[in-house]
């Protein structure tokens, strides 16, 4: 975690380190398994190609995460002259947190949301949508921005971005195995052995499922951590709680088509682009709204107590 005035979170650091270690091991296991399944020099070559592709994806995501996220939301960077109030708010929070000021962006969409991304605090960007600017009060927006700046200080956006590489590669192998199935594949030994494509499919699906679960667990914890850090920085947890309620309620007014178009960014949003309760909420990148509000209520009660 970067050295700032945001409250520390040893639990987040431990979780990020553990997830990175486990996903790294999972990726190595995938490469070794593919080498064993395919067999021979051809199998070794294929496994090495998969390994290099995985490393390439991780480096690309690390290097260009801010650019990719901005393009995905069709966001534009704004200057202090274009958005003076927004910049003034970010300036004040960065001074409070004693951290470098990130770039500031705005996405022209009615979806009420915000996100932060970037490979380092010096190369980060905080983006808000026009929908959230219209929905929230200044105090509520400050709470949202403090939450996003906490993500930058914690560097958890970078970890989430790079850690997703194992799942992406496993998904590519799954697609390749399905493609091989279309052409019949081949068997390793005799007619009784499982086809190579089927073994590859099973291994890659297991890797994808495990990486999916690990990232979801980390993502939920990091949102609670950012809520907590942002609330302590502004000393106004009730404002962030009010903002989260408004954002979640505002999702119900967004057409399903627009929500689906933005769901690839759910892991980065302050609140997921979903409405109602369904299977999607069970596998959500965020903890439940009730869980977040309960935590903020506890912080509000703590801050409201007189000092002994």
From TrEMBL:
Membrane topology term: Multi-pass membrane protein
Protein name: Protease HtpX homolog
Catalytic EC class: hydrolase
Family assignment from sequence similarity: Belongs to the peptidase M48B family.
Top-level taxonomy: Bacteria, Bacillati, Actinomycetota, Actinomycetes, Propionibacteriales
Domain Peptidase M48: 80-298
Gene Ontology CC: plasma membrane
Subcellular location: Cell membrane
GO MF annotation list: metalloendopeptidase activity; zinc ion binding
Entry cofactors: Zn(2+)
């Amino acid at each position: 975690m970067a050295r700032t005035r945001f409250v520390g979170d040893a639990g987040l650091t431990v979780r990020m380190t553990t997830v990175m270690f486990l996903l790294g091991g999972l990726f190595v296991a995938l490469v070794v398994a593919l080498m064993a399944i395919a067999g021979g020099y051809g199998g070794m070559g294929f496994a090495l190609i998969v390994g290099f592709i995985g490393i390439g994806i991780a480096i690309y995501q690390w290097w260009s995460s801010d650019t990719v996220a901005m393009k995905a939301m069709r966001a534009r960077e704004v200057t202090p002259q274009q958005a003076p109030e927004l910049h003034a708010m970010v300036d004040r929070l960065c001074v409070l947190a004693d951290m470098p000021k990130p770039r500031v962006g705005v996405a022209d969409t009615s979806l009420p949301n915000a996100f932060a991304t970037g490979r380092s605090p010096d190369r980060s960007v905080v983006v808000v949508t026009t929908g959230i600017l219209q929905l929230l009060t200044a105090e509520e927006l400050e709470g949202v921005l403090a939450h996003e700046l906490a993500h930058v200080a914690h560097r958890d956006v970078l970890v989430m971005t790079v850690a997703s590489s194992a799942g992406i590669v496993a998904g590519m192998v799954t697609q390749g195995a399905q493609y091989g199935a279309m052409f019949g594949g081949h068997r390793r030994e005799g007619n009784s052995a499982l086809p190579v494509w089927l073994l590859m499919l099973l291994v890659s699906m297991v890797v994808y499922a495990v990486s999916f679960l690990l990232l979801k667990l980390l993502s939920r914890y990091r949102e609670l951590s950012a809520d907590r850090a942002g609330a302590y920085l502004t000393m106004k947890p009730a404002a962030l709680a009010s903002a989260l309620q408004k954002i979640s309620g505002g999702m119900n007014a967004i057409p399903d088509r627009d929500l689906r178009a933005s769901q690839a960014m759910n892991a980065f949003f302050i609140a997921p682009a979903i409405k109602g309760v369904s299977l999607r909420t069970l596998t959500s990148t965020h903890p439940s709204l009730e869980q977040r509000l309960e935590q903020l209520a506890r912080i509000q009660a703590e801050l409201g107590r007189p000092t002994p």
